[in-house]
Amino acid sequence: MEDLLREKVCVLREKIKSSQDGKALYRELSDLLLRAGKISAAMNILEKSLDLGSDGEAPERLSQEGKWLFDRGLEFADAYLYEDAVECFRQAMDCGHDTFDAHYCLSGVYKSLERFPEAETHCRRALELNPRFAPGYILLGSLLKKPGRLEESVAACKKAVLLDADCTAAYYDLACYYSLLAKREQALAAMEMALCKGFSDFEWVLRDPDLEGLRQNPEFKLLLQSYRPKTV
């Protein structure tokens, strides 16, 4: 359902870009989001359609506070309206909400848009502002993976583990990066730590392309069997 909603939203966003009068399309998008339960995002989109002037341009919102813009950016991101989210986060920063969470969220949105250099820039800025934020290093690791900088991905996840010894996601990502680097012993050790800390999405483990080189390993199979819930 979420994938279908994302696809419909993207189609409407493309239509809005090429439309001379986006009012009707914005309302259609608002109705779609409302039916999907994305109430806040739906109301924001509806408001935008009402604000559109005859020239199709939304009025300036220079008087809005940065926190308000940041919250709206979160709502847009939740509804897969990534370009709107980018606009809100950047305006929030211009209005004084130049915080680690704004940069972190903007980095995540840029990642969803596959604009990886910009995503890395804002992720690193978030970590400059809050160097003890473990999820930031996990995000950085995933961004560095895209251009094949796997050793740097490993280093980023190790920092996350140092900051949060119970960080299941960091251990799992480490297993993936080590697997891609063909470092099977390290990958097995990281996967065991992830399972020990509570990782339980075994269905994804069996499909994750990053672990393709590890799945035929007998030790890996035994490891999964030892943690996988027994069926009656």
Could you write a compact summary of the structure shown?
By secondary structure, the chain is mostly helical.
Range of helix content: 55-70%
Count the strands?
0
Report the sheet with the most strands, covering strand number, pairing sense and barrel closure. Answer: none
Task: Report the total helices.
Answer: 13
SSE class? mainly alpha
Instruction: Please give the domain count.
Output: 3
Question: Which regions have little confidence, pLDDT < 50, spanning 5+ residues?
Answer: 53-63
The coarse silhouette is globular
* Elements, N to C (H/E): HHHHHHHHHHHHH
Query: Cα-atom Rg, whole angstroms?
Result: 21 Å
Mean pLDDT: 85
Cα distance spanning the termini: 30 Å
Strand content: under 5%
Task: Describe this protein's structure.
This protein is mostly helical. The protein folds into 3 domains: 36 residues, no CATH class; 66 residues, Tetratricopeptide repeat domain (Serine Threonine Protein Phosphatase 5, Tetratricopeptide repeat), CATH 1.25.40; 75 residues, no CATH class. Helix content is 70%, strand content 0%. α1 runs antiparallel to α2, α6 packs antiparallel against α7 and α8 packs parallel to α10. The longest helix is centred in the N-terminal third of the chain and has 17 residues. The two termini are 30 Å apart.
